[in-house]
Automatic annotation (TrEMBL):
Gene3D superfamilies: 6.10.340.10
Organism: Desulfurobacterium pacificum
Transmembrane segments: 12-31, 234-257
Key word Phosphoprotein present: no
Residue ranges of every copy of the HAMP domain listed in the record: 259-317
Claim: Glycosyltransferase is one of the keywords in the record: no
Keywords: Membrane, Transmembrane, Transmembrane helix
Lineage: Bacteria, Pseudomonadati, Aquificota, Aquificia, Desulfurobacteriales
InterPro entries documented for this protein: HAMP_dom, Tll0287-like_dom
Pfam families associated with the record: Tll0287-like (PF11845)
UniProt-recorded name of the protein: HAMP domain-containing protein
Endpoints of the signal sequence: none
Length: 323
């Protein structure tokens, strides 16, 4: 359909809906970028908290639990205290004698696995520490994590993220610190009791996780987030205020277009038609206005048509006098 076959009302409505469509596209593009940045920040924040926790645990030699450990995860070493006594901080007073007590040591890797299970149960988020030099089968990286490790190694970056189906994945590099060498350093520098504990728990696989140096890539913290879809996120942002604002914007646009463009043009079209038929006693409402003092283009057009009407009227009167 040619545009000349459309009324100006239709053209204005078409332009309006094109603008709405482009604005909606722009909104979703911005929402998508904001959505992605939000997911990255969530993964980054969680990974950083895990790194801080692991650093804290490593600085104290691990986390000890009393009389309890998780089956399937286990512990690194145990400690039996046949005469347990409870004492307050900076006090020698015995608050309670608990008798025989058993403590279980969780190194940072095992403690992280415990936290991951709890997080997955409570919040549906999962994270784990994986490495291409893993000791336990649970620490073996999946396809996405393998790609993340290789990318981090190749590009020398500290993080990597992307989508794995409907799940958003985030990886944070773990570099060996001085405190890590107690369990992952050269074999002849690892304390004998820790080395024996590693052998007992992981068998010969313990060799995969030793002989690191400070600065080496030990592995990654892998965070998996199952977020709501971007459509549901967008719908959650729409409320009565948004809908009301859109309706008001449409009404303002339509009233402006109608009373400032459509009606004035229709009035000028009718005036030009009347002038062509010899009806010269029409009033366009612009008499007395000077064109150089007017900024509105339609009003300028009305002044020009009114001047044309006056010129035609003068010409007709002159012809009549000559007769």
């Amino acid at each position: 359909m040619k545009t000349k076959q459309l009324s100006i009302t239709h053209k204005i409505l078409i332009v309006f809906f094109i603008l709405v469509a482009l604005s909606t596209l722009s909104f979703f593009h911005l929402l998508n970028k904001t959505y992605k940045v939000s997911l990255i920040n969530q993964g980054r924040s969680l990974a950083q908290e895990i790194i801080i926790f692991r650093k804290w645990a490593a600085s104290f030699g691990g986390v000890w639990t009393k009389d309890k450990y998780t089956e399937g995860i286990g512990y690194l070493m145990s400690l039996d205290a046949p005469y347990g006594e409870l004492k307050a901080y900076k006090s020698d007073e015995v608050l309670k004698r608990v008798g025989e007590t058993h403590f279980f040591l969780h190194n940072p890797a095992l403690a992280t696995r415990e936290l991951s299970q709890l997080s997955n149960i409570e919040y549906g988020w999962s994270f784990r520490v994986v490495s291409d030099r893993y000791m336990a089968p649970e620490d073996k990286p999946d396809t996405w994590e393998t790609k993340a490790i290789k990318t981090i190694e190749k590009k020398g970056v500290t993080e990597y993220w992307g989508w794995d189906g409907k799940t958003f994945r985030y990886a944070k590099a773990i570099y060996v610190k001085q405190s890590c060498l107690k369990c992952h350093g050269p074999e002849n520098q690892i304390p004998e009791e820790i080395l024996k504990a590693l052998k007992a728990k992981y068998g010969d696989n313990y060799k995969r996780a030793i002989n690191y140096k400070v600065g080496d890539l030990r592995g990654i913290i892998s965070v998996s987030i199952l977020p709501p879809s971007i459509i549901s996120t967008a719908l959650s942002l729409v409320d009565i205020v948004n809908i009301g604002a859109f309706i008001i914007a449409f009404l303002v646009f339509w009233l402006f277009a109608k009373y400032e463009i459509i009606i004035p043009i229709e009035k000028l079209t009718k005036a030009a038609h009347d002038i062509s038929l010899g009806k010269l006693d029409i009033d366009l409402g612009v008499r007395g206005l000077k064109e150089e003092e007017v900024k509105d283009e339609i009003t300028k057009l009305a002044i020009a048509i009114d001047r044309l009407r006056a010129s035609v009227q003068i010409a007709i009167e002159r012809l009549r006098k000559k007769k």
